[in-house]
Specification:
Elements (H helix, E strand, L loop, with lengths): L2 H22 L5 E9 H12 L11 H19 L5 E12 L4 H13 L3 E6 L8 H14 L1 E7 L3 H13 L4 E5 L5 H4 L5 E4 L41
Length: 237
């Protein structure tokens, strides 16, 4: 064999090894375990339970929620038994920013990003500036890319019940996170699983002062309105 032929043979062998290494190094396909958090809706629900603005002891701890999501993802991965598909947790908080509130909200947004949550922030211009449609678009995008599970933290059954039940009927696990007082639509669903936020370890530093009609104290209790009377003036028809 000539020197030229020998060099050509070595080159061909090197190319073959490179192709084989490329094939074995291809990243395994991944599917997302998607968590979306409806901040305006849950803030209103938490305020109704507390009868006012939450203190530090009663604000949700997103680091605890993130650890719970990681554990849930690991459990799903173990149950699937498919080593060729990796499950990737993803969490996003959707929120409105009222005019003049950016400096107040900024530390909270930065804290969320610091523990691994993405944030979708939208100016609160009017009553139609809610984030429901943005959440649904994000869920639809991830659904096209491949979902292993979807978790929606919201009490807005009007916006989310139908699309979430559609996803669940396809065989994708769907959980609704929230407060049982405001999530009868999820509790009554045959296809959705409901998880009360207070049942997730560490999300709240102290127990919420929750009072239901089936657990009233002997002296009675005040049940605060879910929204002010003035909301009737701007209620959607």
């Amino acid at each position: 064999m000539s020197v030229t032929e020998d060099m050509q043979d070595e080159t061909a062998q090197a190319e073959a090894r490179s192709e084989a290494e490329s094939e074995t190094s291809v990243t395994a396909p991944s599917r997302r375990v998607l968590l979306v958090w409806d901040a305006p809706n849950l803030d209103m629900g938490l305020g109704a339970i507390l009868g006012g603005r939450p203190t530090a002891a009663h604000r949700p701890r997103f680091d605890a929620l993130g650890r719970w999501l990681l554990g849930y993802t690991a459990d799903l991965s173990a149950e699937s038994g498919d080593a060729d598909v990796s499950l990737e947790p993803e969490a996003t908080v959707f929120t409105n920013i009222a005019p003049g509130s950016a400096d107040v909200v900024r530390p909270w947004v930065e804290a969320l990003r610091n523990v691994g949550f993405a944030v979708f922030a939208k100016p609160k211009i009017d009553d139609d500036s809610d984030v429901d449609s943005d959440m649904l678009e994000h869920i639809a995008l991830r659904r096209r890319e491949g979902l292993a599970a979807v978790l929606v933290a919201s009490a807005d059954g009007q916006a989310f019940r139908q699309p979430l039940e559609e996803i669940a009927r396809e065989g994708t696990p769907v959980q609704v996170l929230g407060f049982r007082e405001h999530a009868s639509w999820a509790l009554a669903s045959d296809t959705l699983e409901f998880v009360d936020l207070e049942d997730i370890p560490g999300v709240f530093r102290e127990p919420l002062p929750r009072i239901g009609l089936d657990s009233l104290p002997e002296q009675g209790a005040w049940l605060q309105p879910f929204r002010p009377l003035s909301s009737l003036l701007t209620a959607r028809m």
